Amino acid sequence: MRIEALPHSFFERDPLVCARELVGCELVWNGCAGIVVETEAYLACGDEACHTFMRPSARAFIEQHSPGTAYVYLNYGMYWLLNVLVKGGSEDGFVLIRAIEPTRGIELMQQRRQVRAKAPMSYSLHALCSGPGKLTQALGIDGSDHGRDLCAGSGIGFVPNTKPVKLTTDVRIGISKAAHLPWRFLLRGSQFVSVQPGGKKRSKQP
DNA sequence: ACACGGATACTA
DNA sequence: AGTATCCGTGTC
User: Which one of A5, A19, A47, A203 has the fewest CB atoms closer than 10 angstroms to its CB?
Assistant: First the structure.
């Protein structure tokens, strides 16, 4: 039997709601997969940490694409980060996928991670996808996925969660602007997140 | 603690 | 062209 992916309508709501509800869903990518355990919301309007604040190209992307489209960009010159476009609800924005708990294709994911990380600890199960740059490496996501429709049922996208999930909220990670907003959502108690809630790597110094 | 590395958007 | 910044990671 075939499981339906999250439809476009899922992403036609407030970005904070989408970020919250994506936790617990399974991210599937060409045979590899993992449960989403950490997300962050970014708002297109008034959020200084969102790309739309400084990048005309990000604003154009929102104009030209449908909700549920992948927004993938290169950060620090070496890590691809996966966002999902949220559009058509009360506010537009993005959801950054920050960590997943590996479920399928684990050996292949470890293979891909070993290329960049030599120490076995770096690609052990708990560290395999525990960060936005790590999970894109593991799943083989790169710039060619920028603009991809994640609701097309092509074996790439999100599978709805079945059980209710317990969530934790915390501030966003690694940003220098609007760093106080509690727009990071985590699966409560998960050992697969990038930084535990209340952890030390909070935000960059002003 | 530090190096790694490139796209984007500024200044001129 | 040159500069500043950036939603990170692995190893020092």
Answer: A203
